[in-house]
């Protein structure tokens, strides 16, 4: 009887006959596709029969969905992250024409399944104008064009979570990204991979990095609402008061909080990053997990992942920033902000009247003092692994000859280093 059970298990035999399952990668791909289409259970069972000749019951489908971590509205993201995911879709839709179904589908395509009622409630609470305008006969909402005096009038900042743990779905590892962008020129001042873009200490250091690099602050710094912007708000306000006390704060506030849906200059950048680089980056990273190179249950692998892949991702972000700042923005005669130039040129060369370079020069000593008031040092805010593992990883990297890092060789380098670290540890 014992041997019979083993034979039946190996051939997938049960009371309903022999089951010829496709390879795991094909089956996972199909199940994820069904989730993207938001198919019902019956529809998914029908598709399995058509696509793979696989006739199973709903209970077995549930087991397979769990095995391959197929997104489900029954297992949504935490509420704050789910809300942010919806608002990012709203921010990408400047015409506010996308409804609940469209947003749900777009999120499903990214591996995020949310209940329609949840999406509808988020829109009602955070973007009611979009819901209102979709009623038949509703008045159109007139959006004014983005207008800026010139370079450094307004800088916009926001975090990006499309490569976080939920997006990668690799057993808990993921990245945060934080960006800062000039509105008038569209010049990207910072695009940085960070351990956590929701910590005020971390984003505060990113902000001061940008101030030190450029030597200036803008008239107004605009960011999303949230506790992670506390030090940015305080430092920008203090620097503006010290170096430009004559600017009318009621007309030109030093710092301003906006919801993501209205912080469009930086939100639009995420769309372009994903379109040109982001999706490829995500797939490259996930490939190591899908190919079995990365094992979240191996205690060395998550630490090595966090030692190696932030470096590779930052290289990709730098390539994207270089592309973006060097690309020519199409000339538009009636556009109030810069057009017909590259962002880098417009930011570097002072514009002619009626525009004005609004940058306010600040002293390095003052920014150093402000950095010292942040309770967590920059080094610790940007730390991915502890010092002992940092040394072990550096030693392993030296042994393999310190090869140049890139997306293409990332998992090869990972494998070589993991083997060496395992040998030393054992």
Low-confidence stretches: 1-11, 133-147
End-to-end distance:
41 Å
Major sheet: 5 strands, mixed
Total strand segments: 9
Rounded mean pLDDT is 82
Q: What is the radius of gyration?
A: 25 Å
State the helix count: 18
Question: Helicity range of the residues?
Answer: 40-55%
The strands making up the biggest β-sheet line up spatially as: 5-4-3-7-8
Domains counted in the coordinates: how many?
A: 3
CATH topology of the largest domain: Nucleotidyltransferase, domain 5
- What is the second-level CATH architecture of the largest domain? 2-Layer Sandwich
Secondary-structure-derived class = alpha/beta
Order of helices and strands: HEEHHHHHHHEHEEHEEHEHHHEHHHH
CATH class of the largest domain: Alpha Beta
Strand fraction equals 5-15%
Domain Integrase core: 150-335
Signal peptide: 1-15
InterPro entries: Integrase_dom_put
Keywords: Signal
Write up this protein.
- The chain is an alpha/beta fold.
- It folds into 3 domains: 2-67; 79-133; 154-381, Nucleotidyltransferase, domain 5, CATH 3.30.420.
- It is built from 18 helices and 9 strands.
- It has helices at 2-10, 24-36, 41-52, 58-67, 79-92, 100-109, 116-126, 128-133, 165-168, 200-214, 230-243, 264-290, 300-326, 343-348, 364-372, 378-381, 387-399, 410-425, and strands at residues 13-14, 17-18, 154-160, 176-182, 188-194, 216-217, 220-224, 255-258, 360-361.
- Strands 5-4-3-7-8 form a 5-stranded mixed sheet, sandwiched between helices. It has a two-stranded antiparallel ribbon with strand order 1-2.
- A hairpin with a 2-residue loop joins strand 1 (13-14) and strand 2.
- The radius of gyration is 25 Å and the shape is globular.
- Residues 1-11 and 133-147 have low confidence and may be disordered.
- Keywords: Signal.
- Residues 150-335 form the Integrase core domain.
- InterPro entries: Integrase_dom_put.
- Residues 1-15 form the signal peptide.
- Pfam families: rva_4 (PF24764).
